[in-house]
Amino acid sequence: MIAAPRILILGTGSMAASHAERFAGIAGCSLVAAVDVEPERARAFAGRYAIPTSFGDLGEAIAWGKFDAAVNVTPDGAHKATSLALIAAGKHVLCEKPLAVNHADAEEMAAAAEAAGVVNMVNFTYRNAAALQAARALVGAGEIGPIRHLQASYLQSWLTAKHWGDWRTDERWLWRLSSAHGSMGVLGDVGVHILDLATYAAGEPIVALGARMKVFDKAEGGVIGPYRLDVNDSVAVNVEFAGGALGVVHASRMATGKANELDLLLHGERGALRLWTDGQTSTLEACLGPDIEVQRWRPVEVAPPPVIAERFVAALQTGVNGEPDFRRGAEMQRLVDLVAASDAAGRWLSVD
Ligand SMILES: NC(=O)c1ccc[n+]([C@@H]2O[C@H](COP(=O)([O-])OP(=O)(O)OC[C@H]3O[C@@H](n4cnc5c(N)ncnc54)[C@H](O)[C@@H]3O)[C@@H](O)[C@H]2O)c1
């Protein structure tokens, strides 16, 4: 139990800013160091968020040692080596999603964190959405009955529009298009979020799936500088849930007209839920009871839950691990691998 956790931010690119802002707003913890392989970037970031120390190398930060926990905001391909180094040093870790770049690596990370007894959490951001927590509670209370059908989507359009900058010239986007730079495409980037959201809301795992992924031509020869643009831009997955429901889960970076939106429809035998979020806000509507005869949907009031930074600090302070943990991150990684395997095999595959 750590009364006043000292937190280090590892990787000071675009997502690190939102972590810094969140942790800075939580009483009882402090941001003590920033680390990036680009030392200037780490220094500038530390200056911007009044963080006293910065390093250009995680090894130096670990040798310095004056921190309790790290938020790992490095690119996907760097999560495993850096998290294992932190865990080996006895540090608690909140790691960005996807936990790793394959299921075996994610399992290794979960096992290492559990063996070391450190707090380990994965940033499936949409767990912060009030509508998701309310949907899970309604499903868990039996309000919609057994789920029979579902659809879930995570849609972005940064490959067809420039609202988040030009992906052709910005390395923040280019690494996300290249397997050699540790990306699993839209599947690993945001597909993992929608798989977590759908299965968390339903309270049931996916037991089988059949998937198709697409890489669209985006540059001459499929290459920009050192980046070979070889990972999926769109993915569509037919799924079967443990309770027998069938549905579709899909994600794209070419969903023109959608900047960043997640939708979920759950159809049960006695009711249905419709969830929407853009990461800033969320809404939930329900069709329940006599309303199922006239297909009337009513808004459901939802209360904001604690966000992941608050849950991480609480876990550090109480010594009780928070959710979602590395084990859940590894479960989602198993699904991500299965989606890719199903696409390659051209047929449905079952989760072991
Ligand atoms: N949860 C979410 O909603 C969400 C949203 C965006 C990004 N992410 C995840 O956050 C992570 C970072 O994404 P981003 O958009 O900030 O990327 P980014 O490219 O903007 O930033 C990554 C930073 O990490 C640094 N870095 C690379 N290797 C490192 C290492 N070994 N040690 C220290 N620093 C290292 C880079 O120099 C860069 O500054 C990714 O895993 C991404 O999938 C999650």
Features:
nine-stranded mixed beta sheet; alpha/beta; globular; 352 residues; six-stranded parallel beta sheet; binds nicotinamide-adenine-dinucleotide
What is the percentage of strand-forming residues? 25-35%
Largest sheet: 9 strands, mixed
User: Can you give the helix content as a percent range?
Assistant: 25-40%
| Measured distance between first and last alpha carbons | 37 Å
What binds here, in terms of ligands, is: nicotinamide-adenine-dinucleotide
Computed Rg: 20 Å
Task: Tell me briefly what this model is.
With 352 residues, the protein is an alpha/beta fold. The chain contains 10 helices and 17 strands.
Topology:
Blueprint lengths: L5 E5 L3 H11 L5 E6 L3 H10 L4 E3 L2 H7 L4 E4 L6 H10 L3 E5 L6 H14 L3 E4 L6 H11 L6 E10 L14 H4 L10 H18 L3 E9 L8 E2 L2 E2 L5 E8 L4 E7 L7 E9 L2 E7 L4 E7 L9 E2 L8 H11 L7 H20 L3 E2 L2
Helix pairs in contact: 4-5, 5-10, 6-8, 8-10
The chain binds nicotinamide-adenine-dinucleotide.
Nicotinamide-adenine-dinucleotide (NAD) binds next to helix 1.
Description:
There is one protein chain. Helix content is 33%, strand content 26%. Helix 4 links the parallel strand 4 (69-72) and strand 5. It is built from 10 helices and 17 strands. It is globular. The longest helix has 20 residues, at 326-345. The model has no long low-confidence stretch (mean pLDDT 97). A 9-stranded mixed sheet has the order 16-15-14-13-7-12-11-8-17. Strands 3-2-1-4-5-6 form a 6-stranded parallel sheet, sandwiched between helices. Nicotinamide-adenine-dinucleotide (NAD) binds at residues 10-16, 35-38, 41, 58, 73-76, 78, 82, 96-97, 123, 125, 172, 175, 189.
